[in-house]
Structures are given as C-alpha cells and as structure tokens.
Write a structure and sequence with these properties.
Blueprint: H1 2-33, H2 45-50, H3 52-65, H4 77-101, H5 106-109, H6 113-143, E1 149-154, H7 158-169, E2 175-181, E3 190-191, E4 194-198, H8 203-208, E5 214-217, H9 227-237, E6 240-243, E7 257-260, E8 263-266, H10 276-311, E9 317-323, E10 329-335, H11 343-346, H12 360-367, H13 375-381, E11 385-387, H14 394-403, E12 416-418, H15 420-423, H16 432-444, H17 448-464
Parallel strand pairs: 1-2, 1-5, 2-4, 5-6, 11-12
Antiparallel strand pairs: 3-4, 7-8, 9-10
Helix pairs in contact: 1-3, 1-6, 3-4, 4-6, 10-13
C-alpha cells in the first residue's frame, strides 16, 4: 500500500505537469495568437514557452508546500480547492516578483502579463477539475476493493466503534479494517463484522505476520495506562501509528496545543471565531449578505405581509425571545405562521408535524422558509449571523444544558438564520443531541468557505427537507 501511494503521487505530479502546460498553452494562444494586437510577436514565441521551465517547477513546489501531494482520502473537496487556490495565487505573486526584478530585460519587460494572469486562472480551473476527476475515479476503485489502506485497531471501545462506523459509511476512503486487538474481549467477538484477533500480548506477532499500513490506537479511557506499552510495540515494528482518543466528546475535532517548555497542553475548546480578524470578516459578510437578502426578498415580504393582514391571522411579525451570543437574550423576528397564543401556551412545546396551530399561509411560508426572512434584520442588528447554530428559547436552553453535554458551547458564536445541522437534515422536530454534534463541528471548524458551502446547501434543503413544518 505504501508503494501504491508513492506510485499515485508520481501520477499526480505527471497529471499536474500536463495540466499546467495545457493551461499555459491555452492562455498563450488566447492572448497572443488569437488576438490581432500590435504587441503580438514583440517577443518570440520561444521565450513564452521557455517560461515553462520556471512556471512548472514553481507550481509543483507550491502544491507540495500546501500538502496537495499528501494522501487525501478523507479531505473535503472545498479544503483541497483552497489549497489549489492558495498555491496558484502565491505562484502568481512570485512570478510578478520575478518580472519586477528583471524589468530591465527587454524580453521580460515585453512579456505579456495577460498571459500569466489568464494562465493562473485557467490553471486553477483545470487543476480543480483534474483533482475532482481523480478523486471520483479513486473513490470508485476503493469501493471495489482497490487501493485499500489496511488498518489494525487496538482497543474495543466507543472510539473503535465510531471509527468503524465512519469507515463503512465512507467506502470511498478505502479503509480495510483487518481486525481488533483487545484485552477484555474474547477472540472472534465482532463489531460490524470486524473481529477481535487477540490481546495485547499478541500485538507484536499480529503486526509482524501481516502487512498493515497503519495501527490505530482506540483504547477506552479507563485503559490509557496501556498506551505507552502499545506505542512501544508499534514503534519497534516501524508501523505508522495513530491515536483515536476515547474522549472525543470532551476535546474538539481539531484540538490546538500550547508548548510549555516542552510540555504539550491541549486546549479543550478551540473556537476560530474568538479571533478578532475572523469575527470581523464574518460580521462584514453578514452585513453585506443581510442587505442583499432584504433587497432580494422585499417583494416576498410585501406579499406575505399583505396575505397575513387579509387573512387576519394576527400580527404580521411574530417576535420571540431567544438565547444568543454569550447566552444573552434577544428578540428574534419571523413572519407569523401560527395562530396567536398566550405566552404560556408558546412555552409548552415547539412545532411538530401537522401542528393544528399553523395557519394555511403559515404552512406555505414555513415549508419554503420564507417565514425566516425577517431575520435578515436581526443579522443587521448584530443579534444573529447568516450562518450559525439555530437560537432556542430560554426554557429549552435551561432544560438542554442539563441533559446534553457541551450544549452551551453553541452560545460562543452568534446564532444563525441557517446552520450546519439544518443542512444535514436536523431541522425542525429532530434529536437535539444530533443537532448539537453538528453545531459543535461548525463552531470548531468555522471558515468563510464552510459558511458559503452551508448557504448554498440551504438553497437545496429548502426544497427537499421533509422536516420543515
């Protein structure tokens, strides 16, 4: 398998070289050959093609620098695109620096900058297409049992079960789990057809007699005293070893560490939006997005307001106190979609399927999420964000914080009109613990790209989700 990965890296590099050359030739043809320009032919075509001697290795080095040649079985397409974008843009900066330094050279001075800019743009597009095509092909091969990564698990625990579940659910990762080693289970004990092969005393022999690519340590929390022994055995065999902690409900999915004079200290909670820069970027996007949203949806707001008024279903805007950033209360706005109730009645429970309190127009606007449009004004006020965990009423927050571990972490960021849980099917009357799991992932892994992805997914979910009622 290791030799297979090396071969795949060589194929990646070869495809990248071809992609870079094709993008460059096409940009040269568009700018120089196809245009009847007075500057056409100022420098010979040989000079343009000789530039590939610099451009090709430069881009390959940038791809390696941004980890585009590391195994990417589990990486997301969006993050890979960011690496492609960053490597190409940095290459563009370096190329322009070369032009600036060598500006006195007549060939460099007359070298068309448009060729370079178009080349980088086309290369980003071509590289993204080629990478996704390779990902698609490899995913299909791995589903058929080709290009598998053979793995041994050490520890029959919740961490072990979660890893097996994810490996089975994501067949395109190509993880073949050979078996489990554990001191507390009998041989041939199974979890989803993955058997226990022996105990820790057998670990060295099991590794030595099989060709594994990785050993994943999935010991239960109560067995961590065995960790050093397991690591020692694995290191003696030279096998690549990883650790899957059994305290995943405590630490974030991407923990950060501090170095105290050689002592690693793990931060229990890493929230990217605690950064002033990240908060400012997100707030700027929220303001622009809210203004655009208000303008785009203003005709719908006028029509919905008129219908609610004509039907005499109560006040047009329904306002309700919700818990927001830092657990502070704020007033959230929605179009009225339910019959007017007393405050005490509203506190009883949330909306369920075929709820008799929902009005006729309410069913339509709730199904299409148009009842949420007034929340663009909440975003402008700073109470909410375009994307974030959905805000809840105080009585439910008081209840869930006692029942759901880490529930209150969601209040470290602004609540959103839409969220990661909602685009993954947890909208409406769905399990709170599942919603929180997605909310926490969003909080700990926030990026502008993730927000954009969620916004686009929201457009799809609006028309396909069956939990909107």
């Amino acid at each position: 398998m290791r030799s297979e990965q090396e071969q795949f890296n060589k194929v990646y590099i070869l495809i990248d070289i071809i992609t870079i050359i094709l993008a460059y030739i096409l940009s040269w043809y568009i700018v120089i050959v196809s245009r009847d320009d007075i500057n056409t032919g100022v420098i010979p075509n040989e000079m343009y093609f000789s530039a590939l001697i610099i451009f090709v290795p430069l881009l390959l080095i940038m791809y390696a620098f941004f980890n585009l040649y590391k195994p990417n079985r589990t990486s997301q397409r969006l993050f890979e695109f960011y690496d492609i974008l960053k490597s190409n843009l940095l290459s563009l900066v370096l190329i322009n620096a070369i032009f600036f330094i060598g500006a006195k050279n007549p060939y460099i001075f007359n070298f068309s900058r448009w060729v370079v800019f178009l080349f980088i743009g086309l290369n980003i597009v071509f590289e993204t297409i080629s990478r996704n095509a390779i990902r698609l092909v490899l995913g299909k091969l791995r589903k058929k049992g080709i290009n598998q990564k053979h793995i041994l698990l050490v520890g029959y625990s919740d961490a072990c079960f979660k890893f097996i579940d994810r490996a089975i659910r994501n067949a395109t990762w190509g993880y073949h789990i050979f078996g489990i080693v554990d001191d507390n289970q009998k041989i041939d004990t199974q979890y989803r057809n993955v058997k226990v092969l022996g105990n820790l005393n057998d670990l060295n022999d099991i590794i030595s007699n099989n060709d594994f690519d990785e050993v994943l340590i999935t010991l239960s929390l109560k067995e961590y005293e065995k960790l050093s022994k397991v690591v020692s055995i694995c290191e003696k065999t030279g096998i690549h070893t990883k650790f899957v902690p059994d305290y995943g409900t405590i630490i974030p999915t991407k923990p950060t560490t501090d170095d105290l004079d050689g002592l690693p200290v793990v931060n229990i909670r890493a929230v990217p939006l605690q950064s002033l820069l990240n908060r400012s970027i997100k707030r700027f996007i929220d303001i622009i997005g809210a203004i655009i949203g208000i303008i785009v949806f203003s005709p719908f707001m006028i029509i919905i307001s008129a219908i609610i008024l004509i039907c005499r279903d109560g006040s047009i805007i329904f306002s309700q106190e919700r818990v927001g950033l830092h657990s502070k209360l704020f007033t959230m706005y929605k179009f009225r979609s339910m019959k007017e109730q007393t405050v005490d009645d509203e506190k009883l429970h949330w909306t369920t399927k075929d709820d008799p309190r929902v009005t006729k127009i309410g069913r339509i606007i709730r199904r299409t999420s148009l009842d949420e449009v007034p929340q663009f004004f909440n975003v402008l006020k700073g109470d909410m964000s375009l994307v974030g965990p959905r805000p809840e009423r105080k009585q439910f927050v008081d209840k869930f914080k006692e029942q759901i571990p880490r529930y209150m972490v969601k209040h470290q960021v602004r609540p959103g009109i839409t969220g990661y849980a909602q685009v993954n099917g947890y909208r409406g009357d769905t399990p709170i613990d599942s919603r929180i799991r997605y909310d926490l992932y969003y909080i700990e892994n926030w990026s502008v790209g993730l927000d954009i992805k969620i916004l686009f997914q929201t457009l799809v979910v609006i028309f396909t989700d069956k939990n909107a009622y």
